[in-house]
């Protein structure tokens, strides 16, 4: 099993951007803009001579681990500026188990190993904003502007995943796969952590009475009882400040009650 790359192609006249026409397994690589892509294409050509090798062309790999710096989503979310070009991509959480099954089925030859369809940088970042961070913002720039700040050109293309889809009909489109395997699990994890934090805070508040003393204000007394305010018999005070200054008295028992002692009228 050879995990290779699909970054050996770029949009051309026969496969224009937005046309829905993707590069197939038998197409000859047309992108040699980087040493990485050039050598990957050479290795793929050499391995074609062996009938016992399965070559999987991976593209812009994405996983549900959004803390991984090599995750495509993590990369572009941290960039100062990003281009906005539709590309074929591979959701590893869905595709890696499929590669194991391919080995069991003795699949050989070259396979475009990505989810069907394409998705742009902006579409991914819109999902990231919607699911992970409503305050997230980003800035776009053009390919020409990008070329001035990167070391080597980048591959942009659409790959035809129909061969893989025919072998595994349950394979999701790139957008559906991102939602199911990346964004929904991460949002559930975020909500679970938030719920745990809220529960911890609630339990803490339910067992305490807080006194907030403002020491700079001259007032009448400091105990609610002095003002005719009595706490519920179900609530036991755990602290006694014994101060003659102004106090806010917070009682938390199922509900939050704030009592402010004031000078009774005569």
From TrEMBL:
Coiled coil: none
Source organism (scientific name): Ananas comosus var. bracteatus
Superkingdom of origin organism: Eukaryota
Protein name: Bifunctional dTDP-4-dehydrorhamnose 3,5-epimerase/dTDP-4-dehydrorhamnose reductase
Any one GO cellular component localisation term in the record: methionine adenosyltransferase complex
GO molecular function, one term: methionine adenosyltransferase regulator activity
A single GO BP: S-adenosylmethionine biosynthetic process
């Amino acid at each position: 099993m050879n995990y290779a790359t699909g970054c050996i192609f770029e949009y051309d006249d026969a496969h224009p951007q937005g046309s829905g026409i993707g590069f197939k397994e038998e197409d000859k690589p047309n992108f040699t803009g980087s040493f990485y892509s050039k050598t990957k294409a050479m290795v793929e050509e050499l391995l074609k001579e062996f009938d016992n090798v399965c070559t999987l062309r991976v593209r812009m790999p994405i996983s549900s681990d959004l803390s991984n710096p090599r995750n495509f989503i993590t990369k572009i979310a941290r960039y100062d500026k990003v281009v906005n070009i539709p590309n074929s991509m591979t959701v590893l959480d869905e595709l890696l188990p499929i590669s194991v099954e391919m080995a069991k089925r003795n699949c050989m030859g070259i396979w475009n190993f990505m989810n069907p369809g394409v998705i742009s940088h902006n579409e991914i970042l819109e999902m990231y904003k919607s699911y992970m961070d409503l305050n997230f913002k980003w800035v776009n720039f053009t390919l020409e502007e990008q070329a001035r700040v990167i070391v080597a050109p980048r591959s942009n293309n659409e790959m035809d995943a129909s061969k893989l889809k025919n072998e595994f009909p349950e394979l999701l489109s790139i957008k559906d796969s991102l939602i199911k395997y990346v964004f929904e699990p991460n949002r559930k994890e975020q909500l679970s952590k938030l719920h745990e934090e809220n529960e911890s805070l609630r339990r803490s508040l339910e067992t305490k009475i807080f006194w907030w003393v403002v020491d700079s204000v001259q007032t009448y007394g400091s105990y609610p009882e002095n003002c005719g305010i009595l706490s519920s018999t179900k609530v036991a005070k755990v602290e006694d400040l014994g101060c003659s200054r102004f106090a806010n008295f917070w009682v938390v028992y199922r509900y939050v009650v704030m009592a402010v002692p004031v000078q009774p009228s005569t």
